[in-house]
Design brief:
heterodimer, A: mainly alpha, 2 strands, B: mainly alpha, 15 helices
């Protein structure tokens, strides 16, 4: 097997981890609140700016900056729910989608207004590991490991804790759970905060590998939706698997042709699968 | 044919007289308002029935790039290539629309499919950077003042072109509303199965409105870049363009024929106003305000500005009937 192809595959797997994390966050929100946050990847952008300013500008230690970014984006998630989602919970789904579309527009433009369109790097250079003839960047390995840890933590929280059980239950039947004494409003707030925290974690991991700029959300946002929809919106396992399928298409496609064409391929596949299997690849 | 409303006649006369009286700067604004108003109208043809497309940038991109590429590399006149690009858009609309409608991909699933479609077209344009110039964009070869090349350094000519297609867009709206078309589509957007049960050809109605919307959007995109003489994948078919279309149409009110044009007037006046007010140092100020307004509109007045007027009118009419019933 071609060594560069192998490298592309490995990098694809590593990227898949971070995409899976993003997809989990978006899926959680969709599954529980039944709203698609179009601006989800732009929350990641906010988190990346947070890490950049705290670490590269104010000189906070990286770990502290990351924790602050996670907490910050979690709060942002809460705000998004209270200010934008809560007022339109009763409207048509498409209106909810468009309201978060407005948020996307706002966040991107506001970031442009505040920071300009410069690409900013947090200036952390991590070593590259040589494994045989393959070069793997340390940053990607960390991102992959942390993403898997985050996903596992979320899984355990949802499966083992009382609150997690309530969250899962409400995604199955929101009317009955109200009668069972679960405060729907509170669960929605907690879910939004967790979704935000996951976006914050993804932001920290992506900040290690990519420069931050106001439109970076456009790079990951559409991919994240695709992954969620492919996996079946609200289906965590499906989203997890789909993240790796998509990241492989992009990595291998990028190896054989250009990055743009591999995205074109991924989006086309998405359209075809959306039409052929609208409930996701794992749907029966 | 029903009699023309006097206000409509006065408005039309004013629009025809404009290029002879207003300064060039305002003419430039008016051309943009008419062309964007036309695109927003085209989008609303679908949007008002609940088929929300987040990928109209795809059709704009085809309309913009096909004629420009054919002109630059083959010297084909836009009079042939623009209809060709409209045909291609219609084809794309059918290729996407038919399976979506057949398999009942609706609501936000439809929105996400069209979002991906817009990305496919935009990234294809970027990927073909050898001929399109990629994300740096491209310019058409200059031909001076030429009907053959559809290039007019003098803005008055383009104003005329823009006015004609804009009126064409309104005519398309009325044409679609004619007969049972509108009732059928409204029934479909309420309850598809019930509509099919009473004998409405759901597929045909949906496809018809989608294809008309796509074709007109392509025409709008073609004329827009023919006017600006510059094309860029982000500005003709990026996500932000697709969202801008949705926003303006909603803000103006997508349920009335003039609503989308009001949206164009509003957004362009806002952009220009902020540009003049703040200068160019505040890149993004206008879009920041759009974003906030879009959220506010969705929450507080999803029927838009002209929709508000309709609501008032309905309320007044109801009050009037109550009064007359009481006396």
């Amino acid at each position: 097997m071609d060594i560069y192809l192998l490298e592309a595959v490995v990098n694809g797997v590593l990227l898949g981890g971070v995409l899976a994390l993003l997809a989990l966050g978006l899926n959680l929100i969709f599954g529980v609140i039944d709203v698609v946050w179009i601006a989800y990847a732009d929350l990641v952008m906010c988190g990346m700016y947070g890490v950049y300013w705290l670490h590269a500008y104010f000189g906070w230690p990286l770990a502290l900056a990351c924790v602050a970014a996670i907490v910050g984006v979690a709060l942002l998630g809460l705000l998004v729910h209270v200010l934008i989602i809560a007022p339109v919970l009763g409207s048509a789904p498409i209106n909810q989608l468009l309201a978060t579309g407005g948020l996307l527009y706002f966040l991107q433009s506001f970031a442009t207004l505040l920071f300009g369109t410069d690409f900013r790097n947090i200036g952390v250079r991590l070593p590259v590991i040589e494994l045989g003839d393959i070069f793997i960047s340390y940053a990607r390995l960390i991102a992959f490991a942390a993403a898997l840890l985050g996903a596992t933590a979320l899984y355990l929280f949802l499966k083992r804790s009382y609150l997690g059980t309530a969250i899962r239950a409400i995604s199955q039947d929101r009317e009955i759970m109200g009668l069972m004494g679960v405060d729907q409003r509170r669960i929605y707030l907690i879910t939004s905060a967790i979704g935000g925290a996951l976006a914050g974690l993804a932001a920290c991991l992506l900040a290690l590998q990519y420069d931050v700029h106001p439109f970076i959300g456009n790079t990951f946002g559409p991919l994240t939706f695709m992954i969620c929809v492919l996996g079946g919106l609200g289906n965590m396992l499906g989203g997890f698997i789909a993240a790796f399928i998509i990241s492989q298409i992009i990595a291998i496609g990028g190896y054989y042709s250009s990055t743009e064409l591999s995205y074109v391929l991924a989006f086309t596949l998405f359209i075809v699968l959306m039409i052929a299997r609208p409930r996701g690849i794992l749907a029966r | 044919m029903r009699a023309w409303h006097p206000a409509a006649l006065v408005g039309l006369a004013a629009l025809v007289a404009f290029p002879f009286v207003v300064p060039v700067y305002f003419l430039h604004m008016l051309i943009q308002i008419l062309l964007w108003g036309f695109v927003y109208t085209a989008w609303s043809l679908m949007g008002r029935f609940g088929f929300v497309s987040l990928g109209h940038g795809a059709f704009m991109g085809i309309g913009a790039y096909v004629p420009a590429l054919l002109w630059n590399y083959e010297g084909v006149t836009p009079w042939l290539s623009i209809p060709l690009s409209m045909l291609l858009s219609a084809l794309l609309a059918v290729v996407i629309g038919y399976p979506c409608f057949r398999l009942k991909v609706v609501g936000h699933y439809f929105a996400l499919v069209t979002l991906a479609l817009g990305q496919v077209v935009m990234l294809t344009i970027v990927a073909a950077r050898d001929i399109t110039g990629g994300s740096l964009g491209m310019t058409q070869k200059l031909a001076g003042h030429s009907w053959y090349a559809l290039q007019f350094p003098e803005k008055g000519y383009f104003y005329g072109v823009a006015l004609v297609v804009w009126l064409g867009g309104l005519a398309a709206w009325r044409w679609l509303d004619r007969g049972v078309g509108r009732e059928a589509l409204e029934a479909i957007s309420e309850d598809e199965e019930a509509a099919a049960a009473v004998g409405i050809d759901v597929m045909r109605e949906k496809l018809r409105v989608t294809v008309v919307s796509a074709v007109l959007t392509a025409l709008g995109g073609a004329l827009y870049v023919q006017y600006l003489m510059y094309l860029n994948p982000e500005t003709v078919s990026g996500i932000s363009v697709s969202l801008q279309i949705v926003f303006a149409a909603i803000a103006g009110g997508m349920y009335t024929p003039l609503g989308p044009t009001v949206g164009a007037l509003l957004t362009i006046a806002l952009t220009e106003g902020l540009r003049v007010w703040f200068g160019t140092s505040f890149v993004g100020a206008a879009n920041t305000i759009y974003g906030i307004l879009l959220v506010l509109f969705i929450i507080f007045m999803p029927r838009g500005i002209l929709g508000l007027r309709e609501t008032w009118r309905a309320r007044r009419a109801r009050a009037a009937t109550l009064i007359s019933a009481g006396s």
